[in-house]
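Worked example

This section walks through a single chain of length 213. The input is the sequence exactly as stored; nothing has been trimmed or padded.
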Amino acid sequence: MEPQQARLTFAAFLALSGFIIFNALFMQKDAGFMLRVSVDRALLKVDASDEATALGSNHSFVGDKLHTAIRRELSQLQYFPGSRSSRLDRRLDAMTMGAIMAYQYDRGLPVNGLASDALLKSLLFGATKAAGQLKTTPQMGSETRQLVAEIQGILSAKGHYGGKIDGIFKGRTIEAIKRFERHAGLPVTGRVSGLLVQELTRLTGVAFSASQK
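Given that input, the structure is written out below as tokens.
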């Protein structure tokens, strides 16, 4: 091989080697970096989605936990017929709402039938108001008013109640409950209770539709 041709071959070799080294050090590094960025972004999206799902699940779990604790305490205080708690699910059924109202009535608390942190604290640590000091409240939930209205409707059909079907728990409704309790041979209390709900359900053969989330 002639010297000039050898120099050209050597120069070409150097150029090719330089390109390979440059590609390995910079171009491939950039490609790897871009790949890692894409993967990281995808993982971030998955993490964000998982976190949102977890928060949503935790919110439901807190509600279920509160309802379970309230049912447990009411059952221990014998506010369910035969000291039995009603079914455990995300909704408070009519019997549980009745048990809450009975507890509130007995403790002189606002009778609204609502499950709350304040109710659980009262169940755990005792009510702060004297029993017998009945108070009604305008904050009664629509679910509770539906329960009272259903009770009024049944009592009206059986001739124990002659007032409006308005879902308001007060004088005429209390007296109608007392008349029914006397007629049915139940303890005369005048309150909405789990026992009252159970007896009216047995009498009519129709379950109450009122429930509370």
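What to look for: The mean pLDDT is 75.
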